[in-house]
Amino acid sequence: MATKISICSNALVLLGDRPISSFSEGGEAGTAASNLYDSAYESELVKHRWRFATKKSVSLSRFTDTPQNEWAYQFQLPTDLLLVQRIYPNQAYEIYGDRLYSNMLEAEIDYTYKPDETSLPGYFAELMELKMAWKLATPVTDNATKAREYSDLYQDAFTIAALVDSQQSPSESVDDSPLIDVRG
Fold it and tell me: Which residues lie closer than 8 Å to 129 by C-beta, 6 or more apart?
């Protein structure tokens, strides 16, 4: 079971530093990890539609007042939203701040949120360890070559993690298409 501390501790071990059990005990390495982790975690969550970090078909609350723009309605977005993945029904919309604007009377969304690290699948926890090793390599080791090495390892791990995560749903088949029909 991963935690923010265990992910950063493992990243430091990868860099040849000592493990930590809290950010405050880790000295400069712990401080660097504490400062870099949250933004690295959130940016990783929005790079792919991770199934473990997706909430499905969440109904949005509509505001009663009419927006002062081209849209007919405005909806409150969830406080834990990082990225809207899909809207139901599929209609045009825009997001400004914590509101979604649309001409739909009702709206549901699928969206990316920030799950607690204890619920992360192993492939994503390992991905975060490599990302943190990459991000911490220069401040901890002062070695740009090591940072490039961990950047490359991270890129490879991202490809594998995204592939594994994508296998949680079957591929959609093309049942009817004019391009297939002409093959005869």
Answer: 7, 10, 11, 14
